[in-house]
Amino acid sequence: MISPVSIPFKSFIQIQRNSATPIYLQVANQFIQAIAQGKLKPGTKLLGTRALGDLLEVHRNTITAVYEELFGQGWVEIHPNKGTYVASQLPLQDLQTSSSFQYPKETGYTFKKSILLDSPFEHTNCDYILNDGSPDIRLTQFDDLSRFYSSNMKRKSNRSKMGYYNQEGSEYFKEQMLDYLQSSRALKINKNNLLISRSIEMSLFIISEILLSADDTVVVAELSYFAANMIFQKSGSKIKSIPLEDDGIDVEALERLCKKQTVRMLYLTAQQHYPTTVSLSAHKRMKILQLANQYGFIIVEDDHDYDFQFDKQPLLPLATSDQNGMLIYVGSFGKSLAPGFRTSFIIAPENLMVEMRKHLGIIDRQGDILMEQALGEMIEEGAIHRHLKKSLKVYKERRDYMAHLLEKELGDMLEFQIPNGGLAFWLKWKKPINLLKLSLQAAKNNLFIPKTLLYQQKNLQAMRIGFGNLNLEEMERSIQILKKSLLEI
Q1: In this model, does residue 96 exceed pLDDT 50?
Q2: Full-prediction pTM beyond 0.85?
């Protein structure tokens, strides 16, 4: 048997004294690796605690803790008055223990795969990036966010709440959200109608899980939000698209479809349609509610850009006129804040909320009580209103400047309407153009245009481009690159 003294322990044990991992765990983990790779054979006697401690320049008690950890995991055997030995029966005996062992690249079993959920998101190293209308986090009042969040962290009365959270969320935040939604959207609701979730997509997923079954029909506009379509299709539902007009979806086409077949759900982005930014007209809103009552389909109204209005008061949500419980209203809150402070909500009749809370309790059990408390205080003290008011001035300036640049540099190539709200433009090219080639050429010129912004059909070449995340200088450079790339394809 090999002598413990001749084992080159320092060749496979390297201690990082600045690491957050305790030294005894560092040493124990490296012992396990050495045994698994066959550097230490079963039955090998190890150095005593004092001798190994001197060799590794650590206290003897540290090595005692190492051996106890290894013994607890079954890697060593401790024989009284004899010493510590590598176990004769190893925990990984059935695995390959040579140094060539590699973690398997594929499973040994089959599983379901979904092409529906293939991520449409891309990554880039370009300095200039177009998106579909995201806010600029550089405008966030970080001092306010830090102050509210920090005060809630320090507040002793919140510590008991941190250890327990359920799907009901923060009652205080819900009360503030009710006031906010009632004042900004005229929604006559109580806390039993409100559910807080992490994102619009999570809200839609919960709705889909409860209300959709295989082969149900979900109606969307012919151009619609890709993530919502993915979620609805994942439930097994069939997507039916209807034409889009200058004032929203074609309600006559919707009525004709309802006469032919059963429609389970209609998905709308009523305030600023995604991606075209058009607003659903008042008379169409009333007609849609009438059709829902007549044919029994559910309306899901997604109002994710409601707070970004520039030139006029927005139309109130359809939810303010629904008297028969046919509509579910989803939206986002704090979109102008840093991502960690944004949240989403669902508004629906109380009996549906009971089921929704069950599902939220499974997929988001822990919640974020401190964030909700901080947001609630920001609503109550008016910080949200002040921040949004300041942001809107900047976003309106950026919208107007983007319109100026588009008209100046590309006015003869495309057509667009200046949006009344939201943070994006809908651009339609006057002549046929290969948008994918344009995207690839722009990337070579340091401008990233994600595929999700491109809408290429037989009679349509269009793009949705955001302006909210770009300052004036970045806008100028982005449009210059876009124009240059057009001339190069």
Answers
A1: no
A2: no
